[in-house]
Write a structure and sequence with these properties.
Pfam families: HTH_30 (PF13556), PucR-like_N (PF25906). The relative contact order is 0.06. Strands 1, 2, 3, 4, 5 and 6 form a six-stranded mixed β-sheet that branches. The chain has 17 helices and six strands. The chain is about 60% helix and about 5% strand. It has three domains: about 150 residues, Globin-like (Orthogonal Bundle), CATH 1.10.490; about 100 residues, 2-Layer Sandwich (Alpha-Beta Plaits); about 90 residues. The protein is mostly helical. It starts with a helix and ends with a helix.
Length: about 400
Amino acid sequence: MPIWASVVPDLAEKVRPLAGTLIQDAIEAIQDAVPAYRQPMEGKFREVLVGSVQAAILQCFEFIANPSASREDWLAAFRYAGRVEFLEGRTMDALQTAVRVGARAVWRHVSFAGQELGIPVDTLLTVAEAIFAYVDDLCVVAVEGYTEAQAQASGSYERRRRQLLKLILSDPPPTHQALVDLASAADWQVPEEVAVVVLEYRADQHHLPVPSLGRDVLVDLESGDPCLVLPNPRAQLPALEAQLQGRRAAVGPTVALADAHRSQRLARQAMSLVNRGVLPEVQVTWCAKNLSTLLMFADESLVTHVAQPIRAAFADLTDKQRERVSSTLRTWLHTRGDINETAARLAVHPQTVRYRMNQIEELLGDRLNDPEQRFLMEITMHAWNDPDEASQN
């Protein structure tokens, strides 16, 4: 405002008749200098470009005539122009370049006209300073509108994707048309198959980087049950572990899209079994590699029933003896009866393993020779020592 106040008010009246020429030349200069604006002057593009240039030039004249003139109209016009530029897909750099190129074109005409009209050089220099300060203000306002639209679009886009994820995982599954409609709004191509990855809940999960598996992966890291939906599991799963930033995950089986909730349910169950020590504590647990355990633990009462004979056989042992015998049997089962490998894992002599296995044979009888019994023992071993825990689970 102080700069405009130092400009001779008569200048506006002398230059105002040139407004039409100034507007046309500024538009031509913008289209010549900025590739993004080289398109037919029609529709929304013409409305915003012509309207913005016209508003800027006429407001400039207004400030020369009245330095305290209201700023509300041009603020609104350029904030709106910035929003449209984002929505039309042009960049912020293109927007700012266009404003400055247009200002230079206007200044050339004003400078020439001012000299023709005998306007003092000092006054013209003040006008130049005022115009380019004004242009800086225009850029700031337009960029505000651009970033507001960008933030709103991003927030709306992410909201639609989270809604889509929840819709995919709903049980019963949604209608195909409902899914297609929301997928289209979220710019997501509907696949035939998906895999659901359940992530462990962490208090700091909002601050951890989002797994970088591609924009077609749907992500929910905000809820108490964080998960991913992978529409191309074969391509995306191999890179999963490197993207987890230390978080544990359970990968559900690849299923038809309508069965995504089943993939999630199995992945949740697998994560729960890891937390309980039933499945090994690794960074990525694959349901496809643990289907027998998942099948068995679909009915916890059955697990308790199957584990009961082992608990009964070990009931008369002391706690120390029970732990030693249980750990030996677990390792022996894991190594498929390899005495030397069992000894190496337990850090004892192979003869010690043989002695303990003889003791276990006396306790269990022929069960160790029965493949089905060995399989049942292996998947219920977590329930051998603590019947109270087994019954609670």
